[in-house]
DNA sequence: CGTTAGATTGAGCTCGCTCAACCAGTGTGG
DNA sequence: CCACACTGGTTGAGCGAGCTCAATCTAACG
């Protein structure tokens, strides 16, 4: 809630039962009581602008969020300002779990676009674990999913070439976006700058630009309006030697 | 249980109540009933040799492990054989959680030394969630801890120089080892080869060797008997600009 | 029309890579 | 006891992917 962008806390309470995300096939069907609890667990909604810092390293947020719409990213900084983007957050993703469980946040989260978020009370997490073991299991599942994504990212940064890394990253983000319906006729628009890509891949901005240019020349992606349009996910996947998301239906809190 | 090394399954059943690890100050005190459940959750012990593959990518292990003694590492491979080590596992760490929750393993785990492991039945995880919310919470906590370690690793590989990376890695491993009592008079011995370090840092073997040499020249570490001895953790931390483990007491299943 | 954010391009450098030996310790079979 | 092989560490030489520095360009915006 610090940071450049504005943020507005609303109590609009779109009930979870009619959450548009929940209808998507990517998400597991919830039982009635579970759904009711989640709905009661929800404390309100938060709308933030692009550029807003949702959570920041070192802070002790009392909240846990689920993204309803918009894009964001998690990152860490070194003392001297070097930035590493750890992962991106999309609709349906949970934010702040690490902080809720372990106290202090060890990374920050920033909005890449205007975002709408569900807010949950950290304090009620215990009640969830006590009364809804199925949901508790789901939360662990969500943590394990994040771990998997990080494993892949590590493999990519550690062992792939710049071109492979870029291809992997864009294919990965586009695949996730597609799963939550953010694709217009095969194409996926990702609101990131080349600086974001550089800070995700561990490359310099200049080299990232030259690398992305190769992807553009191969007609795998486009770059325009300060964002990326993925044209050929399969082409990117082949280039990166990546098998794609192994993802089943997942829970949505 | 595939792989080069031998493995022996034992039913020796050292009861959890008298587990030597559990006495360490690094681990949380458990309630009597929790402890009893964990003990009943335990199905046996597994002893493996150095080099044994405990779990492998693509498999569907029915087990979940906690390390009682010894060292191991998690890794992923690219089709062409490039290997990325994701993290190391030490006594008290849990192995196979991702696989237990999500089905198929997406990484492998290999022993760096002879290891002794507690074996748990994957099927009983649900019962744990149902009957012991505190333990369920602990498991999520453990997953979040792994996530934190990966965040740090990503920052390191992505944004630190080779020398900083090496310093970070060895300081990190030595710190964790120290927490579980694996330190003789200030020094910590880590049973890894330079090839392991290279595959963790995303560097070539040759460059890793030259980088480690600098650490040796600065008297921060020693290298001998096919292993590493960390002499000066604080020196390594300073070199890497790393603040150290932010770790509280943690649960031990 | 000046300013700013983001993309682009060229030039030169350097960190980390590959290739190729070589060395030391250890274990094995004859 | 020696010859041989094997693992893991060490070192030098030359190369190249990715870096920094420094401009330039474009579009959006006030």
TrEMBL record, chains A, B:
GO process annotations (BP): regulation of DNA-templated transcription
The record's SMART domains line, in alphabetical order, gives: HTH_CRP (SM00419)
Keyword Transcription annotated? yes
* Any coiled-coil regions, as ranges: none
UniProt keyword terms in alphabetical order? DNA-binding, Transcription, Transcription regulation
What is any Pfam family matched here?
Answer: cNMP_binding
Q: Which residues form the HTH crp-type domain?
A: 160-234
InterPro entries the UniProt entry points to: cNMP-bd_dom, cNMP-bd_dom_sf, HTH_CRP, RmlC-like_jellyroll, WH-like_DNA-bd_sf, WH_DNA-bd_sf
| Keyword Transcription regulation attached | yes
Task: Please provide, alphabetically and separated by semicolons, the GO molecular function terms listed in this UniProt record.
Answer: DNA binding
Q: Which CDD domains match?
A: CAP_ED
What's the protein name?
CRP-like cAMP-binding protein
């Amino acid at each position: 809630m610090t940071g450049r962008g504005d943020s507005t806390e609303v109590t609009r309470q779109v009930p979870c039962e009619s959450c548009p995300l929940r209808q998507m096939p990517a998400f597991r069907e919830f039982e009635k009581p579970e759904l009711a609890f989640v709905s009661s667990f929800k404390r309100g909604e938060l709308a933030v602008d692009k550029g807003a810092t949702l959570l920041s390293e070192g802070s002790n947020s009392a909240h846990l969020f689920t993204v309803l719409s918009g894009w964001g990213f998690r990152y860490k900084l070194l003392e001297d300002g070097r930035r590493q983007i750890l992962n991106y957050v999309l609709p349906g993703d949970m934010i702040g779990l690490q902080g809720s469980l372990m106290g202090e946040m060890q990374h920050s989260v920033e909005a890449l676009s205007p975002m709408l978020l569900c807010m949950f009370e950290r304090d009620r997490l215990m009640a969830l674990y006590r009364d809804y073991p199925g949901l508790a299991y789901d939360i662990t599942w969500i943590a394990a999913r994040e771990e998997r994504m990080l494993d892949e990212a590590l493999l990519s940064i550690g062992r792939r070439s710049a071109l492979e890394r870029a291809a992997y990253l864009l294919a990965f983000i586009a695949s996730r976006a597609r799963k939550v319906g953010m694709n217009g006729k095969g194409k996926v628009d990702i609101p990131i700058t080349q600086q974001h890509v550089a800070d995700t891949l561990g490359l310099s901005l200049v080299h990232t630009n030259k690398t992305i240019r190769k992807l553009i020349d191969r007609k795998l992606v486009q770059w325009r309006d300060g964002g990326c349009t993925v044209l050929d996910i399969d082409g990117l996947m082949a280039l990166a030697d990546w098998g794609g998301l192994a993802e089943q239906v997942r829970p949505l809190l």
